[in-house]
Amino acid sequence: MNAAKDLPLPPGQRARTEFPQFGVSEFARRPLRSTNGRLEFAGVTDGLVSLGIDELTALPRVTLTADFHCAAGWTYRSATWSGYRFRDVWRALVRNDQPSDERGLIVIRCQDGYRTSLPLEDLLAPEVLIADRLNDAPLSNAHGGPLRLVAPAHYGYKSAKHLARIELRADARGYRPLLPRLLDHPRARVALEERGQFLPGWLLRYLFRPLIEPTIRKLQTLQRPRE
Ligand SMILES: Nc1nc2c(c(=O)[nH]1)N[C@H]1C(S)=C(S)[C@@H](COP(=O)(O)O)O[C@H]1N2
Ligand SMILES: [Mo]
User: Over the stretch 82-123, which tens digit does the pLDDT of each residue have?
Assistant: First the structure.
């Protein structure tokens, strides 16, 4: 997954030289709920389990370089992430007596109140990380510290920042997506230009692109209050 900068970008993307803080500004204004240094898991075993961030260090550390694609149309090329494979974390948690089929929906909840979902199968891909470092430095608050998801084959809105809780559900029944469905595709694969639902990706490019600069400027001025 080493992205060469001279390879063409996926359809409708434009490269930026800097990696901006991006996202839904409503969430950038919210204080980060404390997780006491733990990542919670629900629906994996019988109850709620949590893993101390320090316990992750028992797993192999993985470093991966990949392009980061926001559905609004910007790409930051060759970000180098470091952390743990989602699937290593997952398999360390799932007990042997659990059914071995790896289906279901994962809902990811964040310290700022943001949430998103992906099929478990997509998260078990080898390039999906729970990252704590970006470009050789600890993950900053702007980019989702202390822990964020990185799912390079999917648009940025699936790469949840400030991870708090990972929930396994049988399917999407009863799950209410946070973003309007127009902006939230269940899989959001970049290669298929799944920017959102109802409208084709190539059309959504033109709706989303004007939001890029104002969103970046707004996030630069916002100060997150302390809890
Ligand atoms: N917790 C949280 N995660 C989030 C968001 C957010 O607002 N809150 N925004 C998403 C969107 S739309 C994008 S493009 C990326 C931006 O990541 P960056 O700020 O590191 O560029 O984070 C995603 N994950
Ligand atoms: Mo995004």
Answer: 999 999 999 888 855 565 678 899 999 999 999 999 999 999
The confidence score (pLDDT) of residue 3 equals: 53
Give ion ligand 2 contacts, CB < 5 A.
70, 156-157
Nearest-CA residue for ligand 1 atom 2 is 161
Give the separation between CA 71 and CA 207, rounded to whole angstroms.
11
Could you tell me the sign of the dihedral formed by the alpha carbons of 217, 221, 222, 226, in that order? positive
- Name every protein residue with a CB atom under 6 angstroms from any ligand 1 atom: 19-24, 27, 70, 110, 112, 114, 143-144, 156-157, 159-162
User: Which atom of ligand 1 lies nearest, measured to the CA of 219?
Assistant: 19
| Average confidence (pLDDT) over 7-26 | 95
Closest ligand by atom to 160 CA: 1
pTM: 0.95
CA distance 102 to 94: 10
Q: Give the pLDDT score at 226.
A: 76
